[in-house]
Design a protein that fits this description.
The complex is a heterodimer of chains A (602) and B (351).
Chain A (H helix, E strand, L loop, with lengths): L4 E2 L1 E9 L4 H14 L4 E6 L8 E9 L10 E6 L5 H7 E10 L14 E5 L1 H8 L3 H20 L3 H11 L4 H21 L6 E2 L9 E4 L1 H11 L4 E4 L6 H14 L11 E4 L3 H13 L4 E5 L1 H17 L3 E7 L16 H5 L9 E3 L4 H18 L2 E7 H5 L2 E4 L14 E2 L1 H6 L17 E2 L10 E3 L13 H21 L4 E3 L6 E6 L3 H13 L5 E5 L1 E2 L3 H8 L3 E6 L5 H9 L7 E5 L8 H17 L1
Parallel strand pairs in A: 1-8, 2-5, 5-6, 6-7, 10-11, 10-12, 12-13, 13-15, 14-15, 17-18, 21-22, 21-24, 24-25
Antiparallel strand pairs in A: 2-4, 3-4, 9-16, 14-23, 20-22
Helix pairs in contact in A: 1-4, 1-5, 3-4, 4-6, 7-8, 7-12, 9-10, 16-19
Chain B lengths: L37 H16 L6 E5 L3 H4 L9 E4 L5 H11 L4 E7 H5 L3 H10 L3 E7 L2 E2 L5 E2 L22 H8 L3 E6 L3 H13 L3 E7 L15 H7 E3 L1 E6 L14 E5 L5 E6 L9 H14 L2 E8 L6 H5 L11 H4 L2 H9 L4
Parallel strand pairs in B: 1-2, 1-3, 3-4, 4-8, 7-8, 9-13
Antiparallel strand pairs in B: 5-6, 7-13, 10-12, 11-12
Helix pairs in contact in B: 1-7, 3-5
Classes of the chains: A alpha/beta (602), B alpha/beta (351).
C-alpha cells in the first residue's frame, strides 16, 4: 500500500529506447537532487539500440536509503507494449500516468490506483513542427507533468535547462515550453500535488551524482595511468569513454598539444590484456576494462601476469552470466572466476568497490597494489554501480599523494649492483625487484611464462620450480597486509551478522535498519578485498550465525570464505539475489525473517 | 631458453662497431635447438645486423610467442629485456610495451604456427596499427615442438615426414601482410645470410611495421624429399626479385648501379635502402604490381624473395595517436595527475 509521504517515493518511467528519454529522466533526477533530496537512478535498458522497452527508476529518500526500492509509487507509462506489465507494477494506492492521445485498452485497468491521462503526443504534435522534436519533447513534457504532481521546484528545472542547453537556443526554448505545457495541463486537470511530494531539503550538499564507470575512469587519470587497452563490451565501455574524455581534457601537453596517454582499442580482450601486460612490464601504469566474457578471454594473460609478476589493473564491470547472459543486467557472478582466473595454481588480488565513490579510490588503490605486489589486480564493479546514477560524497584528491611504484630499479640503481636477478627475494617479503627495458644492460632479464628459477633463468628442475611458486604463495600472504580492510558496522552486540559485498551495500544497510526497527540487531561486515585479511576471520569467529548476502546463484563469496578461512559451513547462511535486477532491502529482510521462522519452528 | 652459459671468450682482434662493442656483445645464450636448425642462422643474422647498426645492446626489446622460433630471443642480445609471451600473443605485448616506451627498437620473433594459426588475429591487427617494430616469422611449415604437424604455411601437396599429404592451401604471410596494409614486407632464407642481414637492418630502421618472412627449414621434421620447406627445395625454387643494400645515414652510396636497375629509399633516420632489381617489372613501392608478381610466383612454384614492398610515408601507431615524444613511462606524476583543484571543477557537472 502506498502511503502519503514527503521525499520518500519511487518514480518509474517506462519508455522505448532510442527516444531520447535519458535526458528527460536525468533532468527529473537532478531536479530532485538540486532540491536537496537524496536520490538514486536505476536504468533498466535492453541490449538494443532502438525500439525495445526501457525503464528508468528514480528513488527519492530523505532518509538516504538509496538501494533499489523494489516498489513503484508513480509510474509514467510511455510504452504501449509494456503497458500491462507497468500497470501491474504500481503499488496499491499509487499513480499511473499515461499518454491519453490514444485510448487505453478497457481491460487494462485497476481500481486500487489512480490513473492520470495526459495527451502528451497530441500536445507535442500540435506544438512542435518536426518529427524528432515531437518525440523528444513528449518526454520533457512528462517532466512538466510530474513537476506539478510532485510539487517540484520549477526554478530548479529552469536553471538545469539553461545550463544544459546554453549553446542550443532552439532546444532550450522547446524544453522550457514542453515543461510549461505539461505543468499547466496537470495543474488545470488534476488535484495537485499528489500525496507524494518533493519538498526542498538540505541532504545533498557536498554530494555529486555520478556513475561508477565515470568515477573509475577519472580515478585512473588521477592514479597516473598512461596506457589503456580495451575491447568494447557492455557494461564497461563507458569506463574507457570516461578515461578518454578526462584525458582529452587534462592530459594534453600544454606546449605541443601531444597526448600524455595512449588508448588502444584492441581487436579482442586477449589482445587488450596482452597490451596491458606489455605496458606494465615496460614501466607504465596500464589498465583495461571489461566484463565477464572479456575476463574469460583475458584469463590466459592473467595467469601469465601472475606467474611472471607484472603489474596490471583490470576493471570487471560484472553483468549477468553465464556465457553472453544478460549484458544489460547486473550480477556479482565473477567472484570466483576472477579470484582464480587462468589454469594452474593462480590467484589474483581483487577489490570490491560498493559505489562510484569507492570506484574512484579503488582505481588509485588498484594501481598501487599492482605495482607494489607486481601482479594483476582486478577491480570488481558491476553494472548497477558502473552504469547507474548514484549520489556520492564529493571526491577529494590528496595532492601530496605519490604513486607507490614498488620495487622498480631504474638505471642509477642498477648501475650500483654487481648482478641483477629478477626473481630473487632479497627483502623477505616475497617481492623481488624488477627493472625496466631500455634502462641499463645489467638490468636485462628474460620474462617467460615457462618454468623459471629464482634468478629468472629457464628451468625444468623440480626444486627450482617449486621455490618460485612457493614464494608466490608467500607473496599472497604479504598481500593480505596491503589490501584494504573490510568495513564493519556493529548495530548492537549480539551474535548474528551479515557479510556482504560490493553493490549489495545500500540494500543491506537499509535492511539492517528495517530489521533494527523490528527489534533484530544485526552486525555487518562488508568484504572489500581478496585475499581476506584477519578481521574477517575475527568477525566470523565472534558470531554464531552469519548471513552471506550476494548477487549470484552459487554463493560465490560464501564459497570463497569457506575455502580461505576457518568456517563451520552451517554457520554461514546464503541470501542470494541473481535475477539481474539490483537487490532491494526487503529481499534481505524477508530472507532473514524466513530463516528466523524456520529457526523457531525447528 | 638456454640454461647453459655461453663462454664469453673474445678474440682480441674482433672488429668493433661505433660504440666500441664487438659482435660478441650482441649475442645471447647457447641455443638448445636441433643442430642445423635454420633458426640458429637467423639468430646469427640478427646479431650481425644489430651489431652493424651500432645500437646500444640494452635499447632493444625482444619478444616472442611460443614454439621453436619463439625460443630464439634467448640466444641473441643478452643485454636486452626479453619477453617470451603466450602462443600467438606476442603482437599485443609488443604493442603494449611500445605504447609505454616508443624509444626502443622492438624485435618480435614468431613462427608460422604462432603467427598464421593461433596468432592470425593479433598479426592482422598489429599490421593495421603500423606498430613500429620488426616482426620476424621463422617459417618452416611445421610444428616442431609437438613433432611434425602441418602448419598453415605448409604448401598444398607438401608431404609430411610420416607421409601425410597436406590438402589445405598455404597462407602466404607476405601477401597477407601487404593486403592488410603492412608498410615493409620482405622474404628471406635462413641459408642466405648475405641477403638477410641488410633486410634485417632495414627492418629495424623502418618506421612502422616491418615483417620479414624467413624460410627456415626444420631439419628434424620437414627437411625430407616431398617437403616444400626443405633446404634443398628452398634453394632450388628461390627467386630473388630484388636485392636490398642497407646504407647507414653517415655513409655515401658508393656502389654504382646501372640506370633503371636501382632505386634508393630514404628511411626516417636518414639511412637508405638501395634496391637492385633483378626482375625489371618489379616495383616494391607499388602494392598492386607486387601482389600480382607474388601471385605469379606462386603459380610458377617459385619463392619470391627480397624486399618485396616498402612504404616509408605511413604514420606509425604513436604518430596516429599523437603521443608525446617522451616515453609515457617516464612522464613525471605531476604531468599526469590533474590535482584536487581540477577535480573540484570537474565535479561541478555532476551536481
Amino acid at each position: 500500500m502506498s502511503k502519503p509521504s514527503v521525499n520518500e517515493f519511487t518514480l518509474k518511467i517506462a519508455n522505448v529506447n532510442g527516444t531520447g528519454s535519458a535526458s528527460a529522466n536525468g533532468l527529473l533526477m537532478k531536479s530532485l537532487f538540486r532540491m536537496g533530496i537524496p536520490v538514486v537512478g536505476k536504468n533498466y535498458f535492453p541490449s538494443n539500440i532502438q525500439g525495445l522497452p526501457t525503464w528508468y527508476e528514480i528513488r527519492a529518500s530523505e532518509k538516504g536509503h538509496l538501494a533499489r526500492s523494489g516498489r513503484v509509487d508513480v509510474m509514467v507509462a510511455m510504452n504501449a507494449e509494456t503497458y500491462k506489465h507497468d500497470l501491474a507494477e504500481v503499488v496499491s494506492g499509487g499513480y499511473l500516468i499515461y499518454d491519453s492521445t490514444w485510448p487505453r485498452h478497457s481491460l487494462l485497468k485497476r481500481d486500487d490506483i489512480t490513473i492520470i491521462g495526459v495527451p502528451l503526443s497530441k500536445m507535442c504534435n500540435e506544438t512542435f513542427p518536426n518529427a524528432r522534436a515531437r518525440i523528444l519533447m513528449k518526454n520533457v513534457m512528462y517532466v512538466g507533468v510530474l513537476a506539478a504532481l510532485l510539487d517540484l521546484d520549477l526554478d530548479v528545472i529552469a536553471q538545469l535547462l539553461d545550463e544544459t542547453y546554453a549553446k542550443k537556443a532552439s532546444m532550450l526554448e522547446a524544453n522550457h515550453l514542453a515543461i510549461r505545457m505539461g505543468y499547466d495541463y496537470a495543474e488545470a486537470n488534476f488535484a495537485t500535488p499528489l500525496p507524494f511530494t518533493a519538498k526542498s531539503s538540505d541532504k545533498t550538499a557536498n554530494h555529486i551524482i555520478i556513475d561508477g564507470n565515470t568515477a573509475a575512469g577519472l580515478g585512473c587519470v588521477y592514479a597516473g595511468a598512461t596506457c589503456a587497452a580495451w575491447y568494447p563490451i557492455t557494461p564497461s565501455t563507458s569506463l574507457m569513454d570516461a578515461f578518454r574524455s578526462f584525458c582529452a581534457a587534462t592530459r594534453k601537453d600544454a606546449e605541443t598539444g601531444e597526448n600524455n596517454f595512449c588508448i588502444i582499442q584492441a581487436e579482442d580482450e586477449l589482445a587488450a590484456m596482452g597490451m596491458v601486460l606489455g605496458a606494465g612490464w615496460a614501466g607504465a601504469r596500464a589498465f583495461t576494462a571489461t566484463s565477464g566474457p572479456g575476463v574469460s578471454l583475458m584469463s590466459e594473460f592473467l595467469g601469465y601476469g601472475y606467474f611472471t609478476e607484472i603489474p596490471a589493473v583490470l576493471f570487471n564491470v560484472q553483468r549477468c552470466g553465464p556465457s553472453t547472459g544478460m549484458p544489460t543486467r547486473t550480477q556479482q557472478s565473477d567472484i570466483t572466476s576472477c579470484a582464480f582466473a587462468s589454469h594452474g595454481d593462480t590467484r589474483h588480488v581483487l577489490l570490491f568497490p560498493a559505489n562510484p565513490e569507492e570506484c574512484f579510490y579503488a582505481a588509485r588503490d588498484a594501481f598501487d597494489l599492482a605495482d607494489r605486489l607486481q601482479t594483476p589486480v582486478i577491480v570488481l564493479s558491476d553494472l548497477d554501480i558502473g552504469m547507474n546514477d548514484w549520489m556520492c560524497r564529493d571526491l577529494e584528491w590528496d595532492d601530496s599523494y605519490q604513486p607507490d611504484l614498488g620495487k622498480v630499479l631504474r638505471a642509477d640503481e642498477v648501475e650500483k649492483l654487481d648482478v641483477f636477478h629478477r626473481y630473487l627475494d632479497v627483502d623477505g617479503d616475497a617481492i623481488a625487484a624488477r627493472t625496466l627495458p631500455g634502462d641499463h644492460p645489467k638490468g636485462a632479464y628474460f620474462t617467460r611464462g615457462s618454468g623459471h628459477n629464482m634468478y629468472g633463468a629457464y628451468t625444468e628442475n623440480a626444486d627450482e620450480y617449486q621455490q618460485v611458486v612457493d614464494r608466490l604463495r608467500r607473496k599472497w600472504d604479504t598481500a593480505k597486509a596491503y589490501v584494504p580492510a573490510p568495513v564493519i558496522q556493529y548495530s548492537n552486540k549480539n551474535r548474528i551478522g551479515i557479510i556482504s559485498i560490493g553493490s549489495c551495500d545500500d540494500a543491506v544497510r537499509e535492511a539492517i535498519d528495517i530489521l533494527g526497527h523490528e527489534g533484530v540487531g544485526i552486525n555487518y561486515l562488508r568484504v572489500t578485498a581478496f585475499p581476506f585479511n584477519g578481521e574477517i576471520q575475527e568477525f566470523i569467529d565472534s558470531h554464531d550465525k552469519i548471513y552471506v548476502v550476494e548477487q549470484n546463484r552459487d554463493a560465490q563469496l560464501k564459497s570463497l570464505l569457506c575455502l580461505e578461512l576457518n568456517v563451520h559451513k552451517e554457520q554461514l547462511i546464503e541470501i542470494l539475489h541473481y535475477n539481474g535486477l539490483p537487490m532491494n532491502a526487503q529481499f534481505v529482510v524477508d530472507a532473514v525473517n524466513v530463516d528466523f521462522v524456520k529457526g523457531e519452528a525447528a | 631458453m638456454s640454461f647453459m652459459t655461453k663462454p664469453t671468450v673474445r678474440h682480441p682482434q674482433l672488429p668493433v662497431n661505433d660504440l666500441g662493442l664487438t659482435v660478441r656483445d650482441y649475442e645471447g645464450g647457447m641455443s638448445t635447438l636441433c643442430a642445423g636448425c635454420g633458426h640458429d642462422s637467423i639468430t646469427s643474422a640478427i646479431v650481425t645486423a644489430a651489431f652493424e647498426l651500432s645500437i646500444p645492446t640494452h635499447r632493444f626489446v625482444k619478444l616472442s610467442g611460443i614454439g621453436c622460433s619463439s625460443k630464439t630471443p634467448a640466444y641473441f642480445l643478452r643485454d636486452s629485456h626479453g619477453f617470451n609471451s603466450t602462443h600467438g600473443r606476442m603482437p599485443s605485448v609488443a604493442t603494449g610495451a611500445n605504447s609505454a616506451n616508443r624509444e626502443l627498437t622492438y624485435i618480435g620473433v614468431s613462427g608460422d604456427g604462432d603467427t598464421l594459426s593461433i596468432g592470425m588475429g593479433q598479426f592482422a591487427h598489429v599490421i593495421r596499427r603500423n606498430l613500429n617494430m620488426l616482426y620476424i616469422i621463422e617459417n618452416n611449415g611445421v610444428y616442431g615442438l609437438t613433432k611434425g604437424q602441418f602448419s598453415a604455411a605448409a604448401d598444398k601437396g607438401s608431404i609430411a615426414k610420416k607421409g601425410e599429404v597436406n590438402q589445405q592451401p598455404a597462407i602466404d604471410p607476405c601477401q597477407t601482410a601487404i593486403v592488410l596494409g603492412a608498410t615493409f614486407v620482405a622474404r628471406g632464407f635462413s641459408g642466405d645470410k648475405d641477403q638477410l642481414v641488410p633486410l634485417l637492418k632495414a627492418g629495424m630502421k623502418h618506421r612502422g611495421f616491418a615483417m620479414i618472412d624467413i624460410i627456415s627449414p626444420c631439419v628434424t621434421f620437414n627437411d625430407h624429399e616431398g617437403s616444400t620447406k626443405s633446404y634443398e627445395y628452398s634453394r632450388e625454387h628461390f627467386s630473388p626479385a630484388i636485392v636490398a643494400d642497407f646504407v647507414p645515414p653517415a655513409e655515401e652510396i658508393k656502389v654504382r648501379y646501372d640506370e633503371g636497375e636501382a632505386m634508393s629509399i630514404e628511411l626516417h633516420d636518414g639511412s637508405h635502402i638501395v634496391l637492385r632489381k633483378l626482375d625489371k617489372d618489379f616495383d616494391p613501392t607499388d602494392r598492386v604490381s607486387v601482389l600480382s608478381n607474388l601471385q605469379e610466383g606462386v603459380v610458377a612454384g617459385e619463392i619470391t624473395t627480397g624486399l618485396l614492398y616498402v612504404d616509408e610515408s605511413q604514420p606509425e601507431m604513436h604518430e596516429l595517436n599523437n603521443t608525446t615524444q617522451t616515453p609515457l613511462r617516464d612522464l613525471p606524476f605531476d604531468k599526469l595527475c590533474p590535482g584536487n583543484d581540477t577535480l573540484q571543477k570537474i565535479q561541478a557537472r555532476y551536481r
